[in-house]
Write a structure and sequence with these properties.
Elements: E1 52-56, H1 63-70, H2 74-80, E2 94-98, E3 140-143, E4 156-159, E5 165-167, E6 172-180, E7 184-190, E8 195-205, E9 212-213, E10 218-222, E11 232-239, E12 242-244
Antiparallel strand pairs: 1-2, 3-4, 4-11, 5-10, 6-7, 6-9, 7-8, 8-10, 8-11, 11-12
Helix pairs in contact: 1-2
Bound molecules: zinc ion.
Zinc ion binds at residues 19, 21, 153, 155, 157, 234.
Length: 251
């Protein structure tokens, strides 16, 4: 399931950066220490793809029912639109629905239901987390994992302002810090259970090779090093160095 996090309204969705991740020959990284495994197999991204659709609020619709219609957590819808009170939505308002392929009709309220009796999304229990990792930053997830239009993407892209602190997704050891073409300045962490996480396009690195980190330890700062059109974090999860979709590991 697609998840969205929004750090703030300052991020313009239309200007999200593209990022690049492709394999380099030894000659291309000459003078630089190679990472512990080959990075990337694809070519540069084209335009980033927004993973969702716009829903225009109609008369009688509530945020809760809109979220239920699209099958997403009401809080996710609130977070994606910077809404802190579900009751503040108005007719004609455009809501970004993360993960939705197309706009759906919400329809009239079922008979016997009253909007005021709907649960306050902020008070609903969160589903129990089996997540092994935590989010490295709060940013807009605008590109997912996997092949899109023939271009492999070994991680996810999270847009955030330059300088945003990047945090370790889990406790582990720093096994690589350095610069890689395409990826820019990267940090690689090794965790228990053969898990590896990689953080690319940083503007600064806050740890050294061999350092031990806890989950949440600041390790880098978001930047636009490497091939990218704007500040974002390219985040990879690998199991035995094989790229995996990070989302199932995240809360
Ligand atoms: Zn990327």
């Amino acid at each position: 399931m697609t998840r969205w996090l929004v750090a703030g309204a300052a991020i313009a969705l239309a200007t999200l950066p593209a990022c690049s991740a492709r394999q380099r020959t030894p000659a291309e990284v000459s003078g630089q220490r190679p990472p512990p495994f080959p990075l990337g197999t694809g070519d540069a991204h084209v335009e980033p793809e927004l993973l969702g659709t716009t829903h225009v609020v109609q008369k009688g619709e509530t945020l809760y029912r809109i979220a239920k219609t699209y099958g997403i957590d009401p809080r996710e819808l609130m977070e994606a639109n910077g809404i802190s009170d579900a009751k503040t939505i108005v007719v004609g308002q455009e809501l970004f629905v993360p993960g939705a392929a197309r706009a759906l009709e919400v329809g009239p309220m079922p008979p016997g239901t009253v909007a005021s009796q709907e649960p306050d999304p902020t008070l609903l229990p969160r589903k129990a987390g089996s997540a092994t990792l935590q989010w490295p930053i709060k940013g807009v997830l605008y590109r997912g994992f996997g092949v899109k239009q023939g271009q492999p993407h070994d991680g996810i892209d999270l847009s955030a302002p330059e300088g945003t602190v990047v945090r370790a997704a889990a406790a582990g050891e720093v096994i690589f810090t350095g610069s890689q073409k395409g990826y820019g300045t990267i940090v690689i962490l090794r965790h228990p259970n053969s898990l590896i996480t990689l953080y690319a396009h940083n503007s600064a690195v806050l740890v050294k090779d061999g350092d031990r980190v806890d989950a949440g330890t600041p390790i880098a700062k978001v930047g636009q090093s490497g091939r990218t059109t704007g500040p974002h974090l390219h985040f990879e999860v690998r199991e035995n160095t094989r790229p995996r979709d990070p989302l199932p590991y995240l809360p």
